[in-house]
Specification:
This protein is an alpha/beta fold. It has two domains: 180 residues, Response regulator (Rossmann fold, 3-Layer(aba) Sandwich), CATH 3.40.50.2300; 150 residues, Response regulator (Rossmann fold), CATH 3.40.50.2300. It is globular, with a radius of gyration of 22 Å. Helix 2 links the parallel strand 1 and strand 2. Helix 3 packs parallel to helix 4 and helix 9 packs parallel to helix 10. The strands form two sheets. Strands 6, 7, 8, 9, 10, 11, 12 and 13 form an eight-stranded mixed β-sheet that branches. A five-stranded parallel β-sheet has the order 2-1-3-4-5, sandwiched between helices.
Length: 378
């Protein structure tokens, strides 16, 4: 009889308890076109984390921005106004982020970046509802500037696409290189023919080349550079030498050094488990886009465990605390809600069937972006 009374009381309590509120996450990313492998890797890793968490009250709505700012903006408006999302994420490209993030966060929606980190959103344009789980755009380029200076290169030729992340990249490189390049040029975003730029490099007298050309742009440049027989050593950020790009470029990339805040051979338990799970599910090695998105998802999921996103103050505090296991090991936010983190140097080496990246050292330790000083957040 006692057991029946207790069971009835428990059932009554459960029935009276409010149902867990559904959290809607809108994921706008690039799933078609020349840069699609970046968005696909980010989407796949994000969904892997959501699947592992097994929270039935988390709903992810995917949208393809086709790498177009106007499309991304329209999708964000639809997700906020029609679908009632609490959180937006997924954008790869900084020009798309600039089209979406400021308006979204002003409407009270949280934005957690899996990649794009334009300087405008890290400094004076920072916002309490905007969190970047990847980096600030300058960081990887700054690290390579520091590394190339340490290695004694005196005449670098530097190039990047003409869009916000491209401008941030060369600004960042020069900041820690602390010298003048022999040439600095901006290419068209989405450009595929680099014959003119390669001719300029050959004639420049440069002793090194630093370039930032993500996605298909990097594939095209490296293939044409190798085909032109230019022997000036090449350096860049991980965006130009991710595992997908290396598979397309082949042995021409062997020996290239690149900078990243994560590598698939990083020695910590969470990273090893992530790489194993990603390979098992998708039959490929994750790129930094995947690692960043996996961290972004786990950051969001850890915050949901502590607070309902509709309680803005509580959820914001839970995001800021960043109490989750990161594939990078230590993870913490600066005052502008961007990571303070180590940036590593990797070398492209021969792998099993295709080149791969190997961790070789630390370029800069616990780097915080310079724009944090312009952000009024505490």
């Amino acid at each position: 009889m006692k057991r029946s009374i207790v069971a009835a009381a428990c059932a009554a309590l459960l029935a009276a308890a409010p149902a867990m509120a559904e959290t809607r996450i809108g994921m706008i990313t690039t799933l078609s076109g020349g840069g699609s492998h970046l968005g696909i890797d980010a989407r796949d890793a994000f969904m892997l984390a959501v699947e592992e968490a097994g929270n039935p009250d988390v709903v992810v709505i995917e949208k393809d921005d086709a790498q177009k700012p106007d499309v991304a903006k329209s999708l964000a408006d639809e997700l906020i106004q029609k679908d009632g999302v609490d959180i937006l994420t997924g954008i790869i490209w900084s020009n798309l982020a600039m089209a979406v993030v400021p308006g979204a966060v002003r409407q009270g929606v949280f934005y957690v970046s899996v990649n794009a980190g334009p300087s405008q959103l890290a400094g004076k344009g920072c916002h309490e509802n905007y969190f970047n789980a990847a980096y600030q755009n300058d960081n990887l380029h700054e690290a390579m500037g520091a590394y190339m200076k340490e290695q004694g290169f005196e005449k670098p030729f530097i190039l990047a696409p003409n869009y916000p992340a491209g401008k941030d990249s060369l600004t960042g490189f020069k900041r820690l290189y602390e010298g003048e390049p022999v040439a600095e040029i901006y290419t068209q975003l989405g450009q595929t023919d680099y014959a003119a730029e390669i001719a300029q490099i050959r004639a420049s007298g440069a002793d090194s080349v630093f370039f930032f050309l993500p996605g298909g742009m990097g594939i095209a440049f490296m293939k044409q550079y190798a085909g032109a027989g230019v022997e000036i050593p090449v350096f860049g950020p991980a965006f130009s030498f991710d595992e997908i790009i290396l598979g397309a470029v082949g042995d021409a990339a062997i020996g290239v050094k690149n900078t990243a805040e994560w590598s698939h051979d990083l020695d910590n338990a969470k990273s090893k488990a992530f790489v194993e799970a990603f390979r098992a599910k998708y039959d490929r090695t994750p790129t930094i886009y995947a690692a960043q998105a996996y961290d972004a998802a786990n950051l969001i999921l850890s915050a949901i465990e502590k607070a309902d996103p509709k309680d803005k103050d509580a959820f914001r505090a839970a995001l800021k605390a960043a109490e989750f296991d990161s594939v990078r090991g230590e993870f913490r936010f600066g005052n502008n809600n961007h990571p303070i983190q180590d940036i590593y140097v990797r070398e492209v080496v021969a792998g099993e069937g295709k080149p791969t990246n190997k961790l070789v050292g630390v370029a800069v330790k616990q780097r915080q972006d310079v724009y944090a000083a312009e952000c009024e957040l505490q």
